[in-house]
Design goal:
Largest sheet of chain A: 5 strands, mixed
Largest interface: A-B, 25 and 27 residues
Radius of gyration of chain A: 14 Å
Helix content of chain A: under 10%
Oligomer: heterodimer
Number of strands of chain A: 11
Structural class of chain A: mainly beta
Strand content of chain A: over 45%
Shape of chain A: globular
Strand content of chain B: over 45%
Distance between the termini of chain A: 39 Å
Shape of chain B: globular
Distance between the termini of chain B: 37 Å
Number of helices of chain A: 0
Number of helices of chain B: 0
Order of helices and strands of chain B: EEEEEEEEEEE
Number of strands of chain B: 11
Structural class of chain B: mainly beta
Helix content of chain B: under 10%
Chain lengths: 112, 116
Amino acid sequence: DAKTTQPPSMDCAEGRAANLPCNHSTISGNEYVYWYRQIHSQGPQYIIHGLKNNETNEMASLIITEDRKSSTLILPHATLRDTAVYYCIVPVNAGNNRKLIWGLGTSLAVNP
Amino acid sequence: GAVVSQHPSRVICKSGTSVKIECRSLDFQATTMFWYRQFPKQSLMLMATSNEGSKATYEQGVEKDKFLINHASLTLSTLTVTSAHPEDSSFYICSASRGWYQETQYFGPGTRLLVL
């Protein structure tokens, strides 16, 4: 089961792009990378996920390196409401399901 | 789409009483639901996984007789904290996914439980 490593905290200026890195060097070929975020005192929010191609949706872009050992979540124009803890997770096998193991994530502070 | 609700959002109860928390998928059918617990300044800890119509699978260290989980329909799961004690005070969060081996989980807003 692949582990992920993220920096504990980052700062970003409002309106700028926030680039959040994640290392998952032990990921296997069929494992996806998921990104969630948790705003203080709320349930986590799904952001995006990918396998090997870069992905984009209305919230963010996900860039996965060719060797799949790392990825970067990009919030193109960060706002104050993007201040949250961001989690990069590779789901692990659990019988007929896959489960999410939550690390400490990256605490992103978007500053005015 | 993919909205999950929880009720109640917060609850205060006396030690020794039981508390039931509901988790509903509002716009999709959730074959699998998950229950998490989060203590202050800590990350989410998975408590149990439940597939509709089956018994829940509990994580190591989680007492199944204390945390009763029912997932009787494709849109509703309940977590009952029996004989609650102050150490059970926590933020309880559910999530739901659409199907077997579907990995994307959608989370409810959480329930804050305070046991006095």
